[in-house]
Amino acid sequence: MMGTNQDTVTDCHQMATLYLNHPPEPRLSVLAIGWYEKALTLEPENVESYLGLAKAYHHLGQSEQALQCCDQAIALEPDSLAARYFACMLQIPIIYRTQKEVLSSRHRYHSQLLELHQRLQKAPTQAVAELATVVGTVSPFYLIYQGYDDTELQRLYGDVVCHIMAARYPQWSYQRPLPFPKTPVHNTTEPLRIGIVFGHFHNHSVWKVILKGWLQHLNHERFQLFGYSLGTKKDHATDLARSLLHSYTDGTRSIEAWGQIISTDHPHVLLYPEVSMDKISIQLSALRLAPIQCTTWGTYVTSGLPTMDYYLSGDLLEPRNAQHHHTEKLIRLPNLSIHYTPSQVTGADLQRQAYGLRSSSVVYLCLQSLFKYLPQYDRLYPQIAKAVGDCQFVFLKHKSSEALTRIFENRLRPAFSDAELDMDQFVVMQPTLSDANYHRLNALGDIFLDSIDVAGTTTTLEAITHDLPVVTMPGEFVRGRVSSAILQQMGVISTVATSVEHYGEIAICLGRNKHWRQVVTEQMAQNKHRLYDDLSCVEALEKSFFTFLEQTPVFQHVL
């Protein structure tokens, strides 16, 4: 590289950022670390280099190293809001070693979030505005997987990010007026304009489960749909999305550019299917770009954002007191809230041996992301193994970090040892699978074990396409209740547990009683059609959009 030290450091940062912005992959994070370390040899007191290192280490699941980098950045610049922001958001590990670590990380996050909130209140507006580029770079995405009530933490987080974004973009920090002079209502022919801000217009779980069916079946004469694609990944689903939208805008753009495009389209309602996985969607969702803004159960139980007016969910998904779990107004669409079409099933044209499985074993599929498995439930697997005997549990390795997979394995092994069992005889860790091989694995399994507290969604639906019995236990919050709601809609509830002990009993009984397992399998095959092509939720969604307008004070004022 040529140029001054500062130019060279900038080049190092650009290369590292390029690697980190690719889909998570260990080799790229390691390369990013190399570039940031090179930048530090050129300028040892560069705070940005330490924060970049922190993010790269976090990608690899090396939380301690990530937090050490944040500490070094704070030591160099104690007043750096960016360093404080990183240190706060990275308190939440991806995978936990113990239940105590879950609680301690939660306490640290809360403490640092409070401190960050206080610092922002006292900081000059310009200093707060400069932090806007950091919003979404790191986020509390993994907080939900602790399984606790996050409402107040999310409310505080929402205040923080909206305060930052309002300082940088004051023109989009206030309530937007509804388009004047005439806003469509039920008895007019003017279509309602719905904008969809999304970073995953591709074969992503939120697209497949929630958004695809809505876009396909909303009345296109009554609703004009505008898509704002924030991501770069494209596939066959992208083409389908484009065909369903009145307007589709994509490309790499600044927040200013996106804000201008969206506000110029004058959407009545802006829908964010998720507000946690994409940096640009996180930033935009903290602004007010439309009179009415809403999100879904795509990730968080609640966004916490004061800029989000409504939370679109399903009646079967939510407990009775669910409004207390949301900072937005909860909208309970019928059933699961989704119009879902199942994937094309691939048969079991491979043998079990191809996946490291014994032909004689009862195979339990545990195919959630590893961060959904909490340490307090590890004892279930050796308990089941001891009772069933010849069985195997299939987990998927973490797709972007061998270190995270090792943390999980090292945590699980003592649970088997305590039961005087050899974990290697019972646990099979599969690498990331293609869609086809994932379905082949489902076809070879006997039983699907759901994760507890934060349930599966796509994984559960895809297990059901193969008629697998699903063992689940409804949690307290929407993200822990999806699988049980799915089974409730199917009318197959004999495998829905009422306690952790009951969960283990059901899993053991299914493993030992082949006849009952076959009965449940047949029930799954006969009833799974009840999950598919549910138009009632789309009809309710259409009515909800019009109701939002009718209940908006600005709308009433305009009339």
From TrEMBL:
SUPFAM superfamilies: TPR-like. InterPro entries: Glycosyltr_41/O-GlcNAc_trsf, OGT/SEC/SPY_C, TPR-like_helical_dom_sf, TPR_rpt. One of its GO terms (molecular function) is protein O-acetylglucosaminyltransferase activity. Residues 177-335, 351-528 form the O-GlcNAc transferase C-terminal domain. It holds the Pfam family Glyco_transf_41. Gene3D superfamilies: 3.40.50.11380, Glycogen Phosphorylase B, Tetratricopeptide repeat domain. Pathway: Protein modification; protein glycosylation. Keywords: Glycosyltransferase, Repeat, TPR repeat, Transferase. TPR repeats lie at residues 47-80. Coiled coil: none annotated. Its EC number is 2.4.1.255. Belongs to the glycosyltransferase 41 family. O-GlcNAc transferase subfamily. This is protein O-GlcNAc transferase. It comes from Adonisia turfae CCMR0082. The lineage of its organism: Bacteria, Bacillati, Cyanobacteriota, Adonisia, Adonisia turfae.
